[in-house]
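Before the break, one more example. Copy the sequence into your notebook; we will annotate it together after we see the structure.
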Amino acid sequence: MSTPSDIKSVNLTTLNKFKENSEKFTCLTAYESTMASVISDCGVDVILVGDSLGMVIQGHDSTLPVTMDQLIYHLECVVKGNQRSHIMADMPFMSYSTDDLGLENAKRLMQAGANSVKVEGGEWISKMAQVLSDRGIPVCAHMGLTPQTINRIGGHNVQGRDPSQKEKIINEAKTLEKAGAAMLLLECVPGDLAKIITDELKIPVIGIGAGVHTDGQIMVVHDLLGISCLEKPPKFVKNFMENSASIQDAIKNYVKDVKDLKFPSSNHTFK
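Here is what the structure looks like once it is written out:
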């Protein structure tokens, strides 16, 4: 098993090797330099500069108000503090509504220091994934519960329990991989569905509320530290500060538990 000290800089090759070797990897959100430095130094493999900043930093009730300029500001802060982690940046709401707009905004994120971009959606973003991939921009496709569509799906509900929806998600994941997506992120889907997709795809699959079988796990760092912006944290959240002496210890315990297959447990997994 690789240790943080073994890896000078995490890139897509690193993440693909993790999958090939059946070795779990970890991801956390960060929005500013100091926390990014701590997260990276503690051995987290991927830092996501997420549009979740709209809720945990700006105090909104959704991610929709976050703009490209705001995302880039936080991305630039994170880049300055990062030591070794792969940096993924979210494409905010409506920043990829057309191919030209998506390409321009992805370019801005990469020029600001991102190593990959995350785009929410199913089969309809396959063309975008191909356009960006063909131009050297790695794409992580975000499926399952997609917060930018919260007004359409009607709330933070588990996706893929219905057999027809389950089949659709599997097929769309395969389509996105074929289109050129470099990674997939599954949010709030049953653990058995996440396992099927992880097993059938060659690209790394990251989970949040998707069970233990995905190649990587991601959490919002505020949730990990027990300071969730939500009145009632989701089922998949674990407060790692409860049995930790410091923020650094909490993050290191998260990394260890993911690597050792102790997190997420069945208590954090949807059926």
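The longest strand covers residues 139-144. The domain at 4-268 is CATH 3.20.20.60 (TIM Barrel). Try to locate both features in your own notes.
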